[in-house]
Amino acid sequence: MGKGADMDGCGQFMKYSMFFANFVIFVGGVTVLGIGVWTLADKAFINELLGTNLFMGTVYILMATGGMVALLAFFGCLGAVKEIKCLLLLYFLLVLVIFVVMLVGGILGYVFREKVHDTMEQEMQASIRMYGQKRAVTRAWDATQETLMCCGVNSFQDWGDQLPDSCCIEEEGKKLPCRYESQNIYPEGCLMLTEMFVKDHAEIIGAAGIITACLLLLGMIFSCALFKSIE
Predict the structure, then answer these.
(1) How does pLDDT run across 126-148, given as a tens digit for each residue?
(2) Is 35 exposed, middle or buried (CB count within 10 Å of its CB: 0-12, 13-18, 19+)?
(3) Where are the domains of the chain?
(4) Which has the closest alpha carbon to 39: 16, 63, 5, 22?
(5) What does the alpha-carbon distance between residue 40 and residue 63 come to, in Å, rounded to a whole number?
(6) Which end of the chain is more exposed for a tag (fewer CB within 10 A), N or C?
(7) Across the chain, what does the average pLDDT equal?
(8) What's the pLDDT at 117?
(9) CA–CA separation, 223 and 210 (whole Å)
(10) 33-41 long-range contacts, CB within 8 A, separation 24+
């Protein structure tokens, strides 16, 4: 009888532990989804200058899995409260798949962070020649220069005689005339600033993915324990 009571107590502990773990996982999934949406909405302009789709590909992976994790965590809470064994088993299998995908997405964020310099300078030098000819590249350069307050790849001299207005310093909401006045041009090139900008955001994305993947591992452990404790 003591053993049965002990098992009941253990089962109850696992039940509420899994419920709490899935609540934390739900918050993690929503956080990852939010970071992905923020990055996509506010940072996607820079993608044309990177020379690779790895950065935005990682964002899309984590957005999709973040949304799925939040939904799955809800069903994990339901399975824990209702003590439905088949739902717990399905939960475990789905979480295992998402765990792998999210872990890969998080690692890709860090891999991109280390490789960003290798491709960026070459792509930026190539794309600067397409300014004014390709709309996406033109918008990317203008947005990058105005957002990061920089000009050209290494300096404004990269533009030659085709200096765009986005290189001009802005004061009180107005662009200063800068075509023939270098003191009114953003002094720093965009390569270093863009590299720092992307690396910082890739680190945030990577960390969010890996932390949430670790939380999923916790959810799998509790789901297995609860599955075994249910008679």
Answers:
(1) 888 888 888 888 888 998 888 88
(2) buried
(3) 2-130+198-229
(4) 63
(5) 9
(6) N
(7) 77
(8) 64
(9) 20
(10) 33/62, 33/63, 33/66, 33/67, 33/70, 34/66, 35/62, 35/66, 35/204, 35/205, 35/208, 36/60, 36/62, 36/63, 36/66, 36/205, 37/63, 39/201, 39/205
Structural contact between residues 202 and 105, judged by C-beta atoms closer than 8 angstroms: no
Better-predicted residue by pLDDT, 40 or 156: 156
Task: Please provide the DSSP assignment of the chain as one string.
Answer: -HHHHHHHHHHHHHHHHHHHHHHHHHHHHHHHHHHHHHHHHHHGGGGGGTS-SHHHHHHHHHHHHHHHHHHHHHHHHHHHHHT-HHHHHHHHHHHHHHHHHHHHHHHHHHHHHHHHHHHHHHHHHHHGGGTTTSHHHHHHHHHHHHHHT--SSSSGGGGTT---GGGB-EETTEEPP-TT-GGGB--S-HHHHHHHHHHHHHHHHHHHHHHHHHHHHHHHHHHHHHHHH--
Q: What is the pLDDT of residues 16-35, one digit of tens each?
A: 777 787 888 888 888 888 87
Question: Tell me: the pLDDT tens digits for 201-213?
Answer: 777 777 777 787 7
The whole-angstrom separation of Cα 222 and Cα 80 is 9
Report the amino acid identity of residue 189.
G
pLDDT digits (tens, 9 = 90+) for 159-175: 988 888 888 888 877 78
Q: State pLDDT tens for residues 92-123.
A: 888 888 888 777 766 776 676 666 666 777 78
